[in-house]
Structures are given as structure tokens and as C-alpha cells.
UniProtKB/TrEMBL annotation, chains A, B, C:
<dbReference type="GO" id="GO:0008704">
    <property type="term" value="F:5-carboxymethyl-2-hydroxymuconate delta-isomerase activity"/>
</dbReference>
<dbReference type="InterPro" id="IPR004220">
    <property type="entry name" value="5-COMe_2-OHmuconate_Isoase"/>
</dbReference>
<dbReference type="Pfam" id="PF02962">
    <property type="entry name" value="CHMI"/>
</dbReference>
<dbReference type="InterPro" id="IPR014347">
    <property type="entry name" value="Tautomerase/MIF_sf"/>
</dbReference>
<keyword id="KW-0413">Isomerase</keyword>
<protein>
    <submittedName>
        <fullName>5-carboxymethyl-2-hydroxymuconate Delta-isomerase</fullName>
    </submittedName>
</protein>
Amino acid sequence: MPHLVIDFSANLTDFPEAQILKDVNAALCKSPEIKDEADVKSRTNRIAHFEIGNQPANRGFVHAQLRLLAGRSPETKKDLAERIAVVLRKHTPHPAGMLVQLSVEILDMDRASYVKERL
Amino acid sequence: MPHLVIDFSANLTDFPEAQILKDVNAALCKSPEIKDEADVKSRTNRIAHFEIGNQPANRGFVHAQLRLLAGRSPETKKDLAERIAVVLRKHTPHPAGMLVQLSVEILDMDRASYVKERL
Amino acid sequence: MPHLVIDFSANLTDFPEAQILKDVNAALCKSPEIKDEADVKSRTNRIAHFEIGNQPANRGFVHAQLRLLAGRSPETKKDLAERIAVVLRKHTPHPAGMLVQLSVEILDMDRASYVKERL
């Protein structure tokens, strides 16, 4: 059930999408909260049109949103966010002179109405 | 007001976007919860970069997120999710040897701050 | 921390992405709620595949989602949504014969699990 979407600004030209997807799934699947590794569905999303703040500075960002069925403890959410952050910290490029912001967000999904099946 | 976003993995090469958008809007508009058919705004989003789990298996996914103004009953949410699932079950391709996951999520939108108008 | 994502239907062919991003960031940064202008991370997202309602009408849409750390007052949320709406009202094209819908949504992000840092 976990859905992970990683947005990154297109000025992070060498952002290693495949490597990050592989590593972040590995990190999440080691959590006892993930019962079936196949449930982890992650994607990267290159953002071509963006604006950060209102100053003429050289800036980039990477932002991950993890969506989970509601009911996880605050500790579990914090742990999962940190697993993602570890991977992003390691692999996100730091172009010279660019301020790069990294953030991770956890969003609850409504459990009662969630549909999940395998075709 | 309902916003529907349907993500699908790019390995579902024959995913019929136009047909699914048409059918899913028709299915939602038949619900008594939808007062004005023009309110239903749906989009499909082909995901080129994704990773499912951490095993070298042939996997794909389709995931729909429906965003509604808060206040609907659990029964209404379940019904709307199922209307979407029916269409996705019918039209999502099943390439030979691929495990395809289908999921539908309902997300509440804050009613007090929502802006809506026609230009 | 605010994340702003502006979806617009691709039939709004002259949608001025760069101008809107600049103006919306300027409008948000004037709010006393925004402590550091560099925190505002905005993107536009052109939607190529969409369907609005179930009638053969000429329709388009622009929809903004602003994600904020939870805890803002309803008045603050309403003010921020309206700042975004003002910019979209001003710059969204109105092609002749097209009904264009505009909407703005505020979504809370879980504060306890949020990760934020600069690389």
C-alpha cells in the first residue's frame, strides 16, 4: 500500500532516479511495517517548471511524499520518513553554488474506502 | 469539485487513457453525490520512472486518487472508490507474466479554505 | 515548507507558467505566515490527458494544491488560498468558447514526521 512520489527540480541534472528508487524501496522494505515488499510503489517525477522563493538565487529541491493507510504511530511515520531521507541525502546531487532543499512528508490515506487488489 | 488523478506505470503500454477517463467520469456522474457533472475533473498520468518492491519481478500498477471536499460519509466514499475501481478493473491491461496492482484512494479536501469559481 | 502544485489542462495553450510561478511566490511571500521566502517551492504541471464531466463541451481547468504543515488557522488557510486565486484569476487564459474552472485547495502535512533540511 505505501505510495511514494519523489519530486525533484530539473536543475538537479544528474539526479539518479533509478538508483534512488532502488535504494529507497530497499530501505522501506526493511521496516517491520512493510508486510509485503511488492506493496511499495515508488516513482520519481522530474519537475521542469518550478520557482523557489522570490529571490534570484540558484536553488533546487527534492521532495518525497509517502502515502500510508491511516493508523500508523507517530514513531513509525518518523522512522519511515527518515529511511527515505537517508537515501535522498546520500544520492541527491549538490551542484556548485546551488542551495538544495530536501523534504519528506507522510500523508495518511483513508483506510475504510481504500481499494486494493491484484489483477 | 472532485479531482481524480490516475497514475499508471508506463509498462502498461496499452493503457487506454481516453477510454478510462470517459468511463470513469460517466460512472462518477451517475452518483447522486455529484450535483454538476462539469465538476468532475479527471486526469491520467503515465509514470515513466517507477519501482515496485525490491524483487526483480515483472510488475505494474494503476493507482487512482479521488479528492473530495470533506464531509462525505464513509459509505459515500466507499461507493465512489468502487465506481472508479470497476472501470479500472475492466480496462487495465494485463500483460502476460506481469503482476498488476490496482488501488483507489479517497482524500478529503479542506472545505473552509477551498476556492472554486468559473472564469 | 509550503509546497504548491498548479495543474492546468493542456488546452489552456498560453498558460503563462513562468509568470504565474513568479507572481504566486511573490504573493505568498508577502504573507506573515511565510517566515523564509526560500521555503516556498512551487511548480506547474501541464496535464495532457484529462476529461471534465461527461458532456461534449469545451472545458479547461486550473487547480492549485498548497501543502502546509498542520496547525494554521482557518483564516490563514483562507488567506493563502485567496492569494493564489488572485494570481490565477489574473493570468489564466480564457480561450473563446471555453468554460474554464479555477480551484485552490489547502492540504495539511503531518508536522511530527516532516523532514526538512538544506544540503
